[in-house]
Structures are given as structure tokens and as C-alpha cells.
Amino acid sequence: TKPDDHPVQNGQSLRSPICCIMGHVDTGKTKLLDCIRGTNVQEGEAGGITQQIGATYFPAENIRERTKELKADAKLNVPGLLVIDTPGHESFTNLRSRGSGLCDLAILVVDIMHGLEPQTIESLNLLKMRNTDFIVALNKVDRLYGWKTCRNAPIGKAIRQQSKDVMNEFNRRLTEIITQFKEQGLNTELYYKNKEMGETYNIVPTSAISGEGIPDLLLLLVQWAQKTMVKRLTYSEDVQCTVLEVKVVEGHGTTIDVVLVNGVLHEGDQIVVCGMQGPVATTIRALLTPHPMRELRVKGTYLHHKEIKAAQGIKIAAQGLEHTIAGTSLYVVGPRDDVEEIKEAAMEDVNSVMSRIDKS
Ligand code: GDP
């Protein structure tokens, strides 16, 4: 392993899109994440996939390799894809970046055997509220009676192997689920039949157990992002960074886990975060990412970085972070900035975060 195998994103005009996984309990959110992470485990460091703080990073090269059977001739303009590790509502509601959703897009997991469930609808409402686009993973297709497993195959290929009976059941359930979405005011369609991308949301049938449809899901996520979100994904020096968690780590004191959505952070940068008792101005002592070698990761050793570019999940060590409020933005004080002004800006979104905490 190279000493630092984190993706170099210099010279790239787009940053990696950030994706989170939503859906009802037991639909397979966790399993799906494991599945998209694990396919290449036998190839050393999982085909360049890196474990980050709070997220998993998939380099474009890995996505290209895993989707080559789709012959999509995919031109990938983004350096990769960052998938948030904690599925569900909570991370999504906490993951904000200056008032809007931190996630660029989401995977909404629906169990093909159960259709839309209460938390699917809650997720839909959150996504609508944040104006976040999503792709439906119609999961557990392997549970259709008589399904023939085609490990990690594109869904089209897998579907061609199935019997008439399986396809009848598949189509019946699919139609029912499309109707349920319509009742929620949303048009959805199988992605390879979808001619009105944008107005009609895409459905990708998947199995998180045997991997059918996972190549399609990965490719669609990246293509969708780079096609419709160029402006949002353009790399900018303007730092956009959200605090996920506050944690005490042996040897580092209180640290914050953040997602750097855009821009670059340096060791020694002066930053402002929101604290329970008001804004805290401090200096980045260390920028940390998990060790790429599994054994060392278990022991809790981190790689130190002089600078890190977006989009990435990072741990930051600094003094005075004890009372930082998760879900708020981190600000960098530039050489020409007025610290007091930044402190005020930093406290602006605290109220909305606090009111959410009160409610829950
Ligand atoms: P979560 O609550 O949405 O994170 O759901 P989990 O990932 O924990 O999955 C719930 C259960 O469904 C577990 O027992 C999984 O093994 C199972 N499961 C998840 N995805 C699939 C799938 O694609 N096919 C089958 N047969 N079972 C699945």
C-alpha cells in the first residue's frame, strides 16, 4: 500500500458527488452499502475503495471497472462517489450544509416484497423538502419465487435468465409499486425504460445479497450526478463543511468528524465552529483519515494530512471542540476575513439545528 492512497483530486474541475441511503427499516440499506463496498474485496484494497470518516469513497476507476459489463461507454467526469455510511433519516437530517441538504443525491431503498412503507414515505418527504434527487433501489429481487441468481450481474442480464413466472411476479409487484409512488405524487419507471429522466424517477431492481443490479445503480448514480448537477459539483475553493459527530479520541482529545463537501482544508487553518455556548474559533491541529491498512485501522491509528480536498470524510483535531453541535457548518477564516463576522455567520444555522434537537 502506498503511504497515502487517498485520491488526488487536484486539477479536477468536479468534486465527487455525495450520496446517502434512505428507506424503511429492514429494506436492506445496510446490506446494500456492504454489497457496493465489498464486491472487490479480493483485489487488495478493495479496488481503490477507501474507508473514510463517516463515509466510503469509490474512485471513478472502481466504478468504471464494475460497470464495464453494461457497455455504457461511461465518461466519468467526477473523481468518484462518496457514500455516507450511516443510512437513514437521522444522518440525512443532520447532514446539512449551509441550510440545504448535504447529500447531492440519495438511494431510496424499497423492498420489492413490501412496497412503500411508512418510513419510505417519511424519507420521500425529507427528500422533497431538501429538494434532493434520488434513485429507487427496488431491493430483494432475489426473494421472488424461483429467482435464478446471477451474482453481481447488471440487472438486464439477470432478468434475461429468469423464467416467465418470475417475470410475471416481478412485473406485477413493480406495477403495484409504481402506482404507490404515483399516489405520493411521483412518477417512477424502470431506469432502462425511462425516457423522461428528470420528471420521472429511476427504479433500479437490486439484490443486496447476490449483487444483481449493483453495477446499474453505481453507474446511474454517477451519470445522473454529473449530468444534472455540474454547477453544484464544480470544485470551489470556498469551503463547505458539515460536522457529523463530536468524539473523544485517545491521543487527540475531542475531535470532530466532518464531511468536507467543497473546498480544501489545511493543517493550521483557523476555523470557526458552533458550540453550545456560542461560536468557537480554533486552529486545526490535525487532519486525520482512517489508516488504509485494516490492521492499523483497528488499533485506531490515523493518517495525518497537510491538506485535504473535497469531497471527503475527515476527522479534525483542535482545541476547544468539546461543545461543538453536530449538524452545523464549519467555517474557515481566511487572511482577509473578520473573525467576528464569521462567528456570527456560523451561529446563524444553530437555531434550526437546536429546534430539531428539541423536537426529537
Ligand atoms: P436496513 O434496516 O434497511 O439497514 O436493512 P438490513 O440491511 O439490515 O437488512 C435487513 C434484512 O434483510 C437482513 O436480514 C438482510 O440480510 C436482509 N436483506 C437485505 N437485502 C436483501 C436482499 O437483497 N435480498 C434478501 N433476500 N435479503 C436481504
UniProtKB/TrEMBL annotation:
GO terms for molecular function: GTP binding; GTPase activity; translation initiation factor activity. It comes from the Eukaryota. GO terms for cellular component: mitochondrion. Residues 14-230 form the Tr-type G domain. This is Eukaryotic translation initiation factor 5B. Keywords: GTP-binding, Initiation factor, Nucleotide-binding, Protein biosynthesis. Belongs to the TRAFAC class translation factor GTPase superfamily. Classic translation factor GTPase family. IF-2 subfamily.
